[in-house]
């Protein structure tokens, strides 16, 4: 089905097994406003994740950990690529992993929690 993004008016397609199901279920989007295109959805999810993890509490950490690891990784949500082309996992992904692996990951949220 062809749709139009309510934010940017971009046309995109949607189906029963839509691409958007790969995004983390971080705060449900408002269905009454319509579906967002891939670019706008990614931006909105990134903003909500940033807001969510800016003030981590034990309850928030448990909520994220219960999600488990994603079925597929999304660049900009679960990881970025560094100058050498290596994956750098996000704090969000590492929280979903469930615990610190002890490898000194660049964005490890568990190291920040230990410092607090």
Strand order in the largest sheet: 1-2
Tell me what portion of residues adopts beta-strand conformation: 5-15%
How many distinct helices?
4
What's the gyration radius in Å? 16 Å
Helix content: 25-40%
Distance between the termini: 49 Å
Overall geometry comes to globular
Low-confidence stretches: none
Largest sheet report:
2 strands, antiparallel
- Mean pLDDT equals 86
| Whole-number tally of structural domains | 1
Order of helices and strands: EEHHEEHH
How does the helix and strand content classify structurally?
Answer: alpha+beta
Pfam family, one: DUF5522
Protein name: DUF5522 domain-containing protein
Organism: Echinicola jeungdonensis
Written overview of the protein:
This is DUF5522 domain-containing protein. It holds the Pfam family DUF5522. InterPro entries: DUF5522. With 116 residues, the chain is an alpha+beta fold. The chain has one domain. Helices cover 35% and strands 10% of the residues. It is built from four helices and four strands; from the N terminus they run ββααββαα. It has helices at residues 38-54, 58-67, 91-97, 109-115, and strands spanning 2-4, 11-13, 79-81, 87-89. The strands form two sheets. It has a two-stranded antiparallel ribbon. Helix 2 (58-67) crosses helix 3. The longest helix is centred in the middle third of the chain and has 17 residues, at 38-54. The model has no long low-confidence stretch (mean pLDDT 86).
